[in-house]
Write a structure and sequence with these properties.
alpha+beta; globular
């Protein structure tokens, strides 16, 4: 199992499962979010705040976060740097 990354408000996601992190503003992203709701594979980790990031996981689930994609990418990059240092 990979490292757990904080995606806001104490919510964590497994870094090994992250495929892509995008902004929720585009029409295709909104369609994906709606489809995930209907299929019950959407995880809302925004704690009632505005969705600022959509995280697609390798298991097909979609996670919503209230943190900016750039913030999450920076955290993911830090995790990768730490992992490279261990090897």
């Amino acid at each position: 199992m990979g490292q757990l990354m904080n995606i806001g408000f104490g919510n964590m996601v497994n870094t090994d499962k992250i495929m892509v992190i995008i902004s929720p503003e585009s029409a295709p992203a909104k369609r994906q979010i709606q489809a995930a709701k209907e299929q019950q594979i959407l995880i809302d980790a925004t704690q009632g705040r505005k969705t600022k990031s959509v995280i697609f996981l390798s298991n097909g689930r979609i996670v919503l976060s209230a943190l900016q994609p750039e913030t999450l990418a920076g955290r993911f990059e830090q995790w990768n740097t730490v992992q490279e240092g261990k090897e």
